[in-house]
Amino acid sequence: MSTSSSSAAERNFKREFLKIFFIVFVVLLIGLSIFFFVNHNENNKYIIKTLELNGSVDEGDALFKINCVGCHGITARGLVGPELHSITKRLNDKEIIKQVTGGLTPPMPSFEIDPVNMSNLLKYLHSLE
Questions:
Q1: 69-78 tens-digit pLDDT
Q2: Fewer beta carbons within 10 angstroms: which end of the chain, N or C?
Q3: Residue 56, pLDDT above cutoff 80
């Protein structure tokens, strides 16, 4: 009799555990979905704002020399990071923005850069073609 009651107890425990696990999984899935939706929406606003601006090559050059020459070299021909001449032919502006702000390819760090300066940097990168 104790064997069947312990088996029933084990089945109930497993059933309760699976219910709790499923509920936690669903709650986490919903939470992550909301987080990614909000984050994606903010990213889109940033990209749209940046692309609406008409940056300055000179300001972008100054920004590049402060932040980027250590890896890409003073002439943007590459060192640790890749050569950037004609980068605007390989990547569109949205991809470049995501690369700079997200540091998508290690060892590149991510940069917190406002839309005006990002627009300046894009203008400078376009001048390297």
A1: 999 999 999 9
A2: N
A3: yes
